[in-house]
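[Q] Does anyone have a clean structure-token version of this?
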Amino acid sequence: MTDVQSLRRQSLWLSRLTLVLLLATIAVIVVPPVAADLHSGLAAPLLWGIALQWLPSLFYLYALWALRSGFQEFAAGGVLGPAIAAGCTRAGVALAIGAGFSAVGVPNLARILSGRGLIDTTDATFTGFLVFDTAYLAVGVIGLALLLLGRLLRRASEVQAEAAALRDELDAFF
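[A] Here you go.
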């Protein structure tokens, strides 16, 4: 088996794993609040609080979907550079935005909305002027690195295509 075939097989496996993670995450986000609401009828402030808590997950889910698409495209016979470049670029942007919401947006919005009585945060404390989690900042930087890697892979595939065209043109002379 060639290296490319092995990479395609691994890419197909990763696309399937990513799909399982995506579906499991959606289930974890959707099922508990729906079940709790059906069972006991959650109050609107609590539902809004749950929605705010899961807001960054929408971006993380899109990042998973973008990576899955890149893996799947390559596994189906796509060219490594463009397939993975597009997935890395989209995933990187989504991770950076999601991490920004997780690190700074959600804690501060929760503090503000809780102070106005719009959401229920009885089990959480939001103190100080600015609240953030440094772990999400690291995820954001990884997202930006993926964005850069995606652009680099795209440029490398463009250079490779130009080199192939020049090679074909040179072969035509000989």
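[Q] Thanks! Anything notable?
[A] The chain has a mean pLDDT of 81.
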